[in-house]
Specification:
Helices cover about 35% and strands about 25% of the residues. By secondary structure, the protein is of the alpha/beta class. The protein has a single domain, classed as Rossmann fold. Strands 6-3-1-7-8-12-11 form a seven-stranded mixed beta sheet, sandwiched between helices. A three-stranded mixed beta sheet has the order 2-4-5. The longest helix is centred in the C-terminal third of the chain and has 20 residues. It is globular. The chain starts with 8 loop residues before the first strand and ends with a helix.
Length: about 190
């Protein structure tokens, strides 16, 4: 464990059918870097993780998105999976929450299908991003420039394509959050 992100508070926004490793991989890396983490979801209780199409573990929600504010966090992480971002993009509080991070120029990480939520929040226009390949047309229609790379950094947005990219995603996310936190504390 390091203290690179000590003093930072990071929200993970997810709901049922998230790809479990896309939450747990970044969660463990950020926790290992000293960050305080909170799971934010559409409803209180627990949410269901998935390993592709198979049910995996359940996770306890810390806060509902209805009462969550980006100003309470230093960064946001959006795990993928197919059902998770599809449900999030249909919830006005989830979309508002995501939009607030961009309005406040805070770091956001999105992996796999999670950019669907970014599209709905209208925050990908003129950005370089990556994602699961099936989102290519959606991202291009939203004005993004989709590239097929392991990890892509554009301003305060980090994106990756799939579970195999998680190590590179984690490294870039920790680097970005650390730099943003350092810049914020020296301002």
């Amino acid at each position: 464990m390091t203290d690179r992100l000590k003093g930072t508070k990071i929200a993970f926004l997810a709901t049922d059918m998230f790809e479990q490793v896309e939450l747990t991989g970044p969660w463990e890396a950020l926790k290992g870097a000293g960050a305080q983490l909170e799971l934010v979801s559409l409803e209180s209780g627990e949410i269901q993780g998935f390993n592709h199409f198979d049910k995996a573990d359940r996770f306890t929600v810390d806060h509902t998105v209805e009462g969550a504010e980006a100003s309470d966090y230093d960064a946001l992480v959006l795990p993928g999976g197919v059902g998770n971002p599809d449900a999030l993009r249909m919830n006005e509080n989830a979309v508002r929450f995501v939009r607030e991070f961009f309005a406040q120029d805070k770091p956001v990480g999105a992996i796999c299908h999670a950019p669907w939520v970014l599209i709905e929040a209208d925050v990908v226009r003129d950005r370089n991003v990556t994602s699961w390949p099936s989102l290519t047309t959606d991202l291009e229609n939203a004005g993004a420039h989709r590239v097929d790379q392991e990890v892509v950094l554009d301003g305060n947005l980090v994106t990756s394509r799939k579970p195999d990219d998680i190590p590179a995603f984690n490294e870039k996310l920790i680097e970005l959050i650390g730099a943003a936190t350092k810049a914020g504390s020296s301002a």
